[in-house]
Structure formats: structure tokens, C-alpha cells
Amino acid sequence: MSRLSMATLLLLSLALATAPRLAVVEAVVVEGLRVGFYNRTCPDAEQVVRDVVMNDYAMDHTIAPGLIRIFFHDCFITGCDASILLDESPSGDVPEKESSANGFTLHGLQTIDVAKASIEAMCPRTVSCSDILSFAARDAAVAAGLPSYEVAGGRRDGTHSRMDDLPGNFPVPGHTVPRLTELFASRGLSQEDLVTLSGAHSIGGAHCFMFSNRIYGFSKTADIDPSLDPAFAQRLRKMCPRPRPDDNPQQAPKVNFDERTGEKLDNAYYQELLARRSLLTSDNTLALDPQTRPLVEQYAKDDALFQQRFGEAMQKVSALDVIIKKNKGQIRRDCRMVNKARGVRWMPIHFLKPPKHPMLQMINWFIRGFQQN
């Protein structure tokens, strides 16, 4: 054996020894979905998505939490149908992405666009946007340090998107455990899934207006939420000025959920919860509520357990209300637009978009969340 081949084998052995261990998690079984769905029709599809995600992640690590967030926001409402990607809906409804829960806070849409365009150039009208989004969310989690997990394919894309589907049906920063549990149960997800998926906040961050209620004017008797670590609250105040009515939310500072390992998808998030260093009420409540605290404590001690269960929970989300039948969905050629039927011309639809500085709308959204606990 040549020195070159021996050196190559040695390097390969070292790489395999240090590579993240694949999570032993089989994809959730849903009739019509299967792992390797595109092995014959577009065998390089998943690799293309992976390459695009990893390329964007190399330039911008915030792509990882952005893609996971888009995926969750899509699947939680009408199922994993890529409706969140639509810029318009044939019905004329204001689309989901214009909601105050989405809007300018969505990050990673262009990554999906690039992946879709690349795949369309190789395999036209074959790979759905909803599958691309599911693959991309998995690859984003892996880029952030999670062991890989299987994602089945075979979803079709929806043909409508309604902003009005979100209010009352989606978790918001002000919700506490009872309301969060109720919402997750309505989607077939357990309280364990709630605690596990909240671990996505191990990466990424929140704009100051999402938690300013905890550090300014919390109650009649306390300006700061007493459940916050006092030193942490003071650091937040230095980063987040007291909000004013004319603030532009798009210019609001953003704070990492996890001060210590904010770019790694790990159990440090749960350790921060127990140390009373969380940003959102919906995170803090997991450590305060006696029903969810035991699992928070368990994850805080066992990173491997959290990572495995996070992959499992993401698989469950990826199977929510998927569209399988051809007469119920389509394979969009452009993830931002529904395919036009041959011979059919759409009249341009102009809907009223939210104002450029929708602070009042966002505040109202979060206040509704505070009241529905």
C-alpha cells in the first residue's frame, strides 16, 4: 500500500471518528411519505438542498435558526404545505408571511429560493417546495450541531395562504404552559414536544420588542419581571432601550436566546432557563411550571437526550397535515407563487399590506398572547 493511500485512510478514519454520530431515528411513518422519495426521479435533490444550506450557513450562521423557524411556522398552521413561502394567494387573501408573527422576522427565504431554482434546473416539476423546506430545516439543524436524522419526502404544495389563519392558533411569546400545551395538542403534539421544540431557541435570538414587557413596566408593583435574574435583566436593559410608540421594529436590536453557545443547537438553552436567563415569557414558563420543569431539568443535564428527541420532534412536525394526493396539491415551479393552470390568466390582486412600521399591530398581537394563558 502506498504512503498516499495509507495517509488517506488515516485521515478518513480520523474524520469518521470525530464526525457527529447519526441519530438513530427513523422517519415518522405517514402513508405516501417515504425516505428516499426522490432516489429515482431526482437523486441529487437532498444533496443540492444540503449544499445550498451549508454554503449559506458558512456565510451567515443565523440562517440555521431562520430556516428552522420558517419550517415550524409553516407546519404549525395548515400543515407542511409551504404556504408560508407564498407571496400571494389566488383567492386574494393576505398571505401568512405578512402576519406580524412572520413579516420581516422571516430569515432564510432566499436560501429556499436558491435550492428550488437549482433543483428545477435539474429535475423540473419534480421536487415540492414543502419537501425542500423540510430537508433544509434538517440540514440547518445539523449545521448547528445536531446529529442528522431522516426526513421522508413526498409532500405536495398547498395552493392558498391566509394571514387570518394565525391569530388564536399559533404560539406567541406571551403564552404560558397551559395555553402552549393546548395549542400543541390541537396539532397532535405532546407537552414533551413543546419542551423539546422550544430548544430551537438554543440558537438565534429575539428582537427587543418581543420581551420588553419583562424589563420595562412589567406590573404595577415591579418594573422588571421578578422571575428574571437581576443581573441578566440589567444587561438586557443596556441592550434594549425603553420602547417608544414611534419605534421602527425592523431597527430594533436583537439579543441571542443563549448567551453562551448561541450558535450551537445544544442543551445550554435549558440550563439558561433554570438560571432564570430567558428572554420570552413562553420560554421562562417552561422552567416555572411544575408540569414541564422536570423535563427542562432532565435536558439541562443530558445533551445527547435532548438532541435525539429534538430530531424526533422535528420529524413529527414534518408530518403534520401533509398533502399527498395530486388533486389536493401541486409541485410549485416557484415557491413564492402557485402554478397557473394552462389557459388561465390571473387578474392582479392587490391586498392591503401591514404598515411599514407595524409596532402597534405587533404589540396587539403579543398582548393577545399575554391574555390567552
TrEMBL record:
Cofactor: Ca(2+); heme b
GO molecular function list: heme binding; lactoperoxidase activity; metal ion binding
Classification via InterPro entries: Haem_peroxidase, Haem_peroxidase_sf, Peroxidase_pln, Peroxidases_AS, Peroxidases_heam-ligand_BS, Secretory_peroxidase
Family of this protein: Belongs to the peroxidase family. Ascorbate peroxidase subfamily. Belongs to the peroxidase family. Classical plant (class III) peroxidase subfamily.
Endpoints of the signal sequence: 1-27
Pfam families registered for this protein in UniProt: peroxidase
Residues reported in the UniProt entry to bind Ca(2+) 2: 258, 261, 266
Keywords assigned by UniProt, alphabetized: Calcium, Disulfide bond, Heme, Hydrogen peroxide, Iron, Metal-binding, Oxidoreductase, Peroxidase, Pyrrolidone carboxylic acid, Secreted, Signal
Primary location group: secreted
Residues where substrate binds: 171
EC number(s) stated in the UniProt entry for this protein: 1.11.1.7
Reaction(s) the record says it catalyses: 2 a phenolic donor + H2O2 = 2 a phenolic radical donor + 2 H2O
Binding residue positions for Ca(2+) 1: 74, 79, 81, 83, 96
Protein name per its UniProtKB record: Peroxidase
Site positions per UniProt: Transition state stabilizer: 69
PROSITE patterns linked to this entry: PEROXIDASE_1, PEROXIDASE_2, PEROXIDASE_4
Record-linked CDD domains: secretory_peroxidase
Disulphide linkage map: 42-123, 75-80, 129-335, 208-240
Keyword hit for DNA damage: no
Location in the cell: Secreted
A GO CC annotation given for this chain: extracellular region
Top EC class for this record: oxidoreductase
Annotated organism of origin: Triticum urartu
Catalytic residue positions: 73
GO BP annotation list: hydrogen peroxide catabolic process; response to oxidative stress
Positions with a binding annotation for heme b: 201
